[in-house]
Amino acid sequence: MIAKHSNPPRSSVLICGFKITLLLIAILFTLQCSQHPPREKGSFLTPDMVELVQLDPTLHLEIRYATTNNFVGRPVYKEARAFLQRPAAEALVRAHEKLKAQGYGLLIFDGYRPWSVTKLFWDVTPADKKEFVADPQKGSRHNRGCAVDLTLFDLKTGKEVTMPGAYDEMSERSHINYAGGNEESRRLRDILRAAMESEGFTVYDPEWWHYDYRDWQKYPILNIPFSKLD
pLDDT tens for residues 110-139? Predict the structure, then answer.
């Protein structure tokens, strides 16, 4: 005899279909949320972004994220420009002026960074190197226009100085307290730190080049391209 298989009750089929639909909705919602900046609660100051070289043309720029010379290996910015919130930008210029008395100036690698670029960095960075990139679900202080990546240049030669580690190098040499390298490179790292801290910036310990301005919490996470900041 051929065994007869009874069909499941219509109600069971409907329930199963409903659960699958809910699961698909949840997956789509999660994917959609991961493609947009996190929603923040509370009130924030109105952004007042300033282009750094407009505030002080003597600052030097080397916006590597607009080139292939970066850890991603391709340009992630369409324009080689750097912006910060006005109070942070003005504090940066003051630090720059202080350094001139010691024979140095500030060379800017990056300032405000759209959230979409932060997400890209997170996605392409290996799990064991995540301390060098910001979690997009929390946002970066770069996204708020209150973080800057920078180094020193020599006023006499115009050349970038040598630090204990290279910019965006994901190794122990990048730590602000790294004791290796030569004495001169560590001295220059300390000169940069002293100037930045005197104007309200705090270094991010794993990266000697990364400084956060003290009021970063007061500004929202932004995902605006440079072309819309004019």
Answer: 999 999 999 999 999 999 999 999 999 999
Residue found under tokens 């020193």: 152
State whether residue 150 is helix, strand or coil: strand
- Residue 189 CA to residue 215 CA, distance in Å, equals 23
For 65, 83, 133, 137, 227, the CA distances from 74, given in Å and listed in that order, are 8, 21, 17, 24, 19
At which residue do the structure tokens 């020599």 appear? 154
Could you give the maximum distance between any two Cα atoms of the chain, in Å?
100
Whole-number Å distance between alpha carbons of 98 and 212: 18
**Mean pLDDT, rounded, for 5-18:** 56
- Backbone angle region of 145, left / alpha / beta, with phi > 0 → left and psi within -120 to 50 → alpha: left
Q: With 80 as the cut, is the pLDDT of residue 27 above it?
A: no
Which is nearest to 218 in space by CA: 7, 93, 44? 44
Q: Could you please report the per-residue DSSP string of 18-85?
A: HHHHHHHHHHHHHHHHHTSPPP--S--PPP-EEEHHHH-TTSEE--GGGSS-STTSS---SS---EEE
Residues marked as catalytic? 207
